[in-house]
Specification:
This protein is mainly α. The protein has a single domain, classed as MFS general substrate transporter like domains (Growth Hormone, Chain: A, Up-down Bundle), CATH 1.20.1250. The protein is built from 21 helices and no strands.
Length: 451
Amino acid sequence: MASHPQRLRAPQEPTAMKPEAKRAARAAFVGLFVDFFDIYLPIVALAPAMAHFQPATISKTAATTIFYLTFAVTLVARPIGSTIFGYVGDKYGRRRTTLVAVAGFTVATFAVAVLPSHAQVGYLSVALLIACRFIGGIFMGGEYTGANSLALESVPTAKRGIVGGVIGSAYPWGYVAISAVTLFLLSFLPAAGPGSPYVEWGWRIPFVVGGILGVVLFGYFRRTSESEAWLSQADTVSERTPFRDLFSGTNRRVLVEVFTLMSGLWLITQATVSTIPGLLVSYFDRDSSTVTAGMLVAYVVMAIGYLVVAVIGQRIGRRRTLVGLGLVIAVVTSLAFFAMVRTLEARGSSVQVFAFVTIAIVVGICPFGLAHTYVIERFPTSVRASGYGIGYSTAVIIPSFYSLFMLGLGKIMPYAYTPIVLIMAGSALTVAAATMGRDHDQLDIAEVGAP
């Protein structure tokens, strides 16, 4: 293991947050909340209504794969948006790029709400769904790239980890919100197969809600100020070459390290939160309302886990925390997933199933409580949005094909257990990359990024 210098400490600085910093942090939280509300619409709101987009004769494995791909294309598109908007954010400012991104994914979300069914246009319906989600994913990738960089550049050093954890917790809260909306709808509009109210039109309501949230977010960001860290370098904008600087020297090494770390974390994410609803509903025929309620509880616990991990990372160092969590995930999340599948095969109670689901998800995903902050701290201001956007989001591409990995692994082992292999692989990548990294959590934001 390579040796690392002691954690660098900045001179004492004020810890009180300025009004501009509070506004930027709130905007980033709301932005990520809306982003994840929209990105998980297919996983939650469409899980009970996929019959709207596919024939009744389709096999369970094919139906599950289409369900996963609908979600995966959004994740694959996000790196494109992060690359484009990261460059623009470094070159022209975080605020304006965020406004364009929010407007884009808002339109794409509204578009899904008016899509036709398979009965009306055949497989063109699912093709249009995938296209809308792909376009929306591009703009979603741009939103958090600008907003999160802006927020964490505005926060005092001593509070950066906690604020980053709060912003990151928008992910589980966004999932809780879409689950609550879907549960409410399913209580009045049962999803009882083709022809039922929810499958016919009820699923459209969450997408309309997502679009409305996008409109609200756009108005909020219009009142947010530009990052002071970026403005302090505004006189060099015309001379900036973010991509060239990012892919050379020290920045290139850091980018590879961040890419490896995030590849591991995204692989764990796909192997848990992205596979579990599909396995429960499509593969094991569990009631969709029960699954949605169980996932909602798991995500509430996850939101708490984000904050706990953020506090630990601020106290002992984010790099050290990531190494420890990677090792814990390899054991605890894998065993919890295994126990979940065994319980499902034995037709065990939903309480037992979701106890294991909660453990697998909370332990597996809690590193994201400090991932945003850690990655943003690894790059200097001149390439921060580009480095964060590309390193954080490009890493999701390979893990997004988890459904295909599962199909391949399913040829040599039971299909339902294949995510465990992906969890173990993701844990190994996380530990390796975090071990190579370095903490900048005690440095002023203007000084971080240079190892």
